[in-house]
Amino acid sequence: MRKIIIDTDPGQDDAVAILLALASPDEIEVLGITAVAGNVPLALTSKNARIVCELAGRSDIPVFAGCDRPLAHTLVTAEHVHGKTGLDGIPLPDPQMKLQDRHGVDFIIDTLRAEPPGTVTLCPLGPLTNIATALTRAPDIGPRIAGIVLMGGAYFEVGNITPAAEFNIYVDPEAAQVVFHSGAPITVMPLDVTHKALITRDRNDALRALGTRVGAVVAAWTDFFERFDKEKYGSEGAPLHDPCVIAYLLAPELFTGRHINVEIETQSALTRGMTVADWWRVTDRVPNATFMGDLDAPGFFELLTTRLARF
Ligand code: BDR
Ligand code: CA
Questions:
Q1: Measuring from each residue's beta carbon to the nearest atom of ligand 1, which residues come in under 6 Å?
Q2: Which pLDDT tens digit goes with each residue over 1-29?
Q3: pLDDT tens digits, 33-63
Q4: Which CATH architecture has domain 2-308?
Q5: Strands 289-295 and 255-260, how do they pair?
Q6: How is 49-90 classified by DSSP, letter by letter?
Q7: Domain regions of the chain by residue span
Q8: What does pTM read for this prediction?
Q9: Which residues lie at CB < 5 A from ion ligand 2?
């Protein structure tokens, strides 16, 4: 059993990641969900996180609003991918459950201080603003973190929001730099992996065929944001980026990668937010992250479908 905090900016693929975690109570205990500004502004991500909890029948999960803007720059959002609400694709009721009063960053700090050291894993699925703010404000929590498994960055796939940068890192590179220099054990799911987690027609049909509300909603979400990647990459189906983080906790054998040095470009106007990953180990910079490179896609979708069938 692993205790986690999901830090997120839902986002349809964030939503599927949350569902996957909540479908796996034997392996994962979700201590709370902290929302951050990213795909859409904070008011929407903190609302969407609660919509997803209620869809899963888990209005008991505490949801906190975190930072509403990146550390140093204005917020860049991705409505062009996720739609105006961030969860476009199928209408869902407004949440009944309330946001917690505490700030998301305080929840991260308090939880890491309250739980035994080395027992809480952070799972960031959006820009790293909340995590970096927590680490900066309370440096004592760094050594208490069991691990940070995050979706962000790219090496071989380079970028999706600019030619050089992946969205989550691009939105807040200064925060990413804090996290990658924190000394905590970091596992990265970059685009190199998540672009292999393509939800093809057959895979989406299998979710719809579950005949459940969750199956129908997930199928409608992925139908919606598939249009964007199809147009852009000509790929068959949408990449389920963020669920890779949770799948890794459940079945790490589905992924392979390298323990390498990863630095974040924060200066250059052209390559801001680039993850400069020393995949080929051509520098003597000290490794600070396990950077995944490959995924067993059929195994990933088997895991996702059988877990979501539990709802
Ligand atoms: C990441 O950006 C967001 O649009 C997705 O939710 C994912 O976390 C992919 O670049
Ligand atoms: Ca996300």
A1: 11, 13-14, 39, 78, 81, 125-126, 151, 160, 166-168, 241-242
A2: 999 999 999 999 999 999 999 999 999 99
A3: 999 999 999 999 999 999 999 999 999 999 9
A4: Alpha-Beta Complex (3.90)
A5: antiparallel
A6: HHHHHHHTT-TTS-EEE--SS-SSS-----HHHH-SSSSTTS
A7: 2-308
A8: 0.98
A9: 9, 11, 14, 125-126, 242
